[in-house]
Amino acid sequence: MRWFRFAVLVLLATVLQASFFADLNIKPDLLLILLVFFAIYCDTSNAIICSFTIGFAADLIGRTMGPQMISFGLFGTALAYLHQVIVIRKMSYQALVIFITALLAGSMVYFLNSLKGEPTPQSMFAALFGIALYSALVGPFLFLPSAWWMRIKISRFSRR
């Protein structure tokens, strides 16, 4: 694992998420897309470290500390272990995994925030569904540049 490249990629995604996408009502979650990318294309121990680190970066731009690191860490770990059983290489499957992970992790973040006494927005489920949908649409297209930057070989277009 190239940790310096990983740090630069997570820092870039965090800055883009906090600044550029902050003005949009419903936006793709770049950090969640990176979470799924590293859970799919890294070995299990590196994927677990990456998921907790990405969750920490997501907490830095959020309102409270902890909920996103916990949910990203748990679901990133689950995806890393699931990847040992199921190979997720097709773009449609990757989009489905991003969509389901976004719904589950987002629901857990809202649940943990409600335990801390944070107010929940009125249209929480609509925003959660929109973020999951946009992340699933954009995510698989960001996997190829991320793999190029991290020097990870993916065989998306090869024949079996």
Q: What does this protein structure show overall?
A:
This protein has 160 residues and is mostly helical. It is 73% helix and 0% strand. It has six helices and no strands. It has helices at residues 3-20, 30-41, 44-61, 67-83, 91-115, 124-150. Helix 2 (30-41) packs across helix 6 (124-150). The model has no long low-confidence stretch (mean pLDDT 89).
Our measurement of the CA-to-CA distance between the termini, rounded to an integer number of angstroms, reads 26 Å
Q: Which structural class do the helices and strands define?
A: mainly alpha
Rg: 15 Å
The topology string of helices and strands comes to: HHHHHH
Proper CATH architecture:
Orthogonal Bundle
Shape: globular
Task: Give a count of the beta strands, DSSP E runs of length 2 or more.
Answer: 0
